Amino acid sequence: MAEAHESVVLLKPVQELAVDCNTPPQRYVHKRGDEDICVNSPVIDVAVIDLDSVQSSSPSAEQELEKLRTSLASCGCFQVIGHGMTDSFLDQVHGIGRDFFALPWSEKRKWSRTAEDTEGYGNDSELSEHQILDWTDRLYLTTNPGDQRKYQFWPQNPENFREILQEYTEKIILLNQVVLKALSKSLNLQENCFLDQYGENSNMVARFNYYPPCPRPDLSLGVKQHADGSAITFLLQDNQVDGLQVLKDDQWFSVPTVPNALLVNVGDQLEIMSNGIFKSPLHRVVTNSERERTTVAVFCSPDSSRFIEPAEDLISETSPRLYKKIKNYVGIFFENYQQGKRAIEAVKI
Ligand SMILES: O=C(O)CCC(=O)C(=O)O
Ligand SMILES: [Fe+2]
């Protein structure tokens, strides 16, 4: 048991590897040509949507919804402001992640993932010996439903960690509802159309991502290219350091950080529910040699025991149903991910 724990889990944290490292170990190096790692990509213009305005009864609400639809069609994401969270609260959320990763390894490892679990503090899960590992350490925690939390992985250092993550979860639950209603309205659907598929026990997982400086940003990636298996991901970026890139028309673009905004990313499950109108974009994270970067992603999905499917009102003779009715998409996602495949392909009709 102890041995399994050591061999499966305690890959040396990237944060420790990065100390005095001139070049990343081979397991972290992408072959030239497989991943064209361009650190200085052009910046993409991601729309900034004001949720206050979307919810108002003024004519600007329609314009804002139109902007939302256009941005999603163009790059699969948008930035949201008017979400009701103050700068100082978002700083605190970011701060509990930054302060946690600043603790010595001996302290952080008290919340290490174990061989049996996907949650806790650790780095890339090694799924095969050929896998190229991501230049990142993570803290991965189920936050909702509350009775599925595994508090043995929730740090108590910094001491406000649990309290802030609890408050952030409550706010994201509400934000997720507002965003899903706006997305439905932007397609002229009943406002609860997507939300109804979520059920009572929507699933939320928070992932604190820490990217240490990397001596060769041209060789390694913070996160290799992927699409999210969620319905929606809310990403609190690092105000100081960029790194996220999104693929559009076969080209990588940098996603800028907008102060006090959360980046909303379409995941595969919303692609299914919208019958492919909203596309779950491929994205990745590049590194830099100068500065560490910390982000907080919250992945929101319908209750895993419920079936999801394309909204009935989006299906017609001219736009036939494109995806199967399925449940537990996150399970399907990881099964495919392990084989290096995109799960969304497996659920297409
Ligand atoms: O840290 C980032 O900028 C993005 C992370 C990401 O894509 C993920 O956690 O799925
Ligand atoms: Fe992602």
TrEMBL record:
* GO MF entries: metal ion binding; oxidoreductase activity, acting on paired donors, with incorporation or reduction of molecular oxygen
Q: Tell me the SUPFAM superfamilies matching this sequence.
A: Clavaminate synthase-like (SSF51197)
The source's domain of life comes to: Eukaryota
Question: Which UniProt keyword terms apply here?
Answer: Iron, Metal-binding, Oxidoreductase
Record has Cytoplasm as a keyword: no
* Span of domain Fe2OG dioxygenase: 202-302
The UniProt family comment states:
Belongs to the iron/ascorbate-dependent oxidoreductase family.
State the protein's name. Fe2OG dioxygenase domain-containing protein
User: Which organism's genome codes for this protein?
Assistant: Apium graveolens (Celery)
Lineage of the organism: Eukaryota, Viridiplantae, Streptophyta, Embryophyta, Tracheophyta
